[in-house]
């Protein structure tokens, strides 16, 4: 594993510009202290038939319009988190968006 991993020691640094140089002084945290770097997925259609519903912890369910490669539109209800829309829709999914519906029962609802 390289020295540039997602887990890095917590470091305090102070940089001071000096002429054409920038001088930095770093002091490491106490032994064993680490900082986690979290990579976050965006919300909405992620590509490859996946949709992520970010609900802010409310547990809400939303109704989506899902488009396949031929332009057909289907309805799909998703709960919080990432949902794979592809296994249910026969042709490749090319897009998905919220159509304004809320409080539906999670799963495939059929053609729009």
From TrEMBL:
Pfam families: DUF6355 (PF19882)
Record keywords: Signal
Signal peptide: 1-28
Protein name: Secreted protein
Species the sequence originates in: Amycolatopsis eburnea
